[in-house]
Amino acid sequence: MIKHILLFIILLSFSCQPEKNTEIDTNDISESSKGGLFIIGGGSRPAEMIDALVKVSSIKEGKGFILPMASADDSAFYYANLQFQERGIHHMKDYTVLSHTEKNSLSKASLIYLAGGDQRKLMEALSESERKAIKIAYENGAVIAGTSAGAAVMSHLMITGDEKKHPDYQPTFRTIEKDNIIFDSGLALLPQRIIIDQHFVYRSRYNRLLTAIMEMPDHKGIGIDESTAIYVKNDSATVYGEWQVITFENKSGTTKHKTGIMGAENIQLNIYLPSEKFKLSQ
């Protein structure tokens, strides 16, 4: 009888341990036949973060393309490419100046880098066949990286940044209102019910992402700050860089409405630090 009581106490003590964020060794990067997503929240890109991108993508041995079409600035390719040249990688190609034959090898890339700018502009610039080529490259083992606008397009449901009720663009939403947020279709590389927001803490985009998960209560919102990234492999996301990644989940699965404003109960907030790891699944 005493043995049974002791066994019960031991099992109970294990079951009551609080769940902790998993600290990982940033040099311990697993490899598999399927690719990964390196999603950068915008801003400056610290050296150790780009070092990690180079490592996970195996770009030193493979093909690399930079897609600068989100930006109207002619220097977008130059600055995106500079971070690779500084690491001895001189074969990243500017996708916009390639021949038709060269563009056909997009699906065979080891790394595809989506530069920042306007996410709608990027999606409009990509043909259906080019979107398909990016997905094929990802499924075959490529890393798809994107910063700022290039991060936003990773989702199925993409935040455009525009508002229906307040057409003058603001860096964030000043309110949490029903039927205000404007979504568009992204590249759909992430799981279906994940929404990305970028420049998150620096530009205080909490209202915008909260609006998104209230309008879409079965979705999980991931806000990535500047100089910060997540590396997504299967169902796991690892934080790289200098600042935080914040997630919102509407655990109630419902939203309340009153005179055009929205509310919800049991919204779970998590704040992840560099080198921490979390699951994408809800």
From TrEMBL:
Gene Ontology molecular-function annotations: serine-type peptidase activity
InterPro entries, alphabetized: Class_I_gatase-like, Peptidase_S51
Gene Ontology annotations of biological process type: proteolysis
Keywords associated with the record: Hydrolase, Protease, Serine protease
CDD domains recorded: GAT1_cyanophycinase
Record-stated family: Belongs to the peptidase S51 family.
Name this protein carries in UniProt: Cyanophycinase
Species this chain originates from: Marivirga aurantiaca
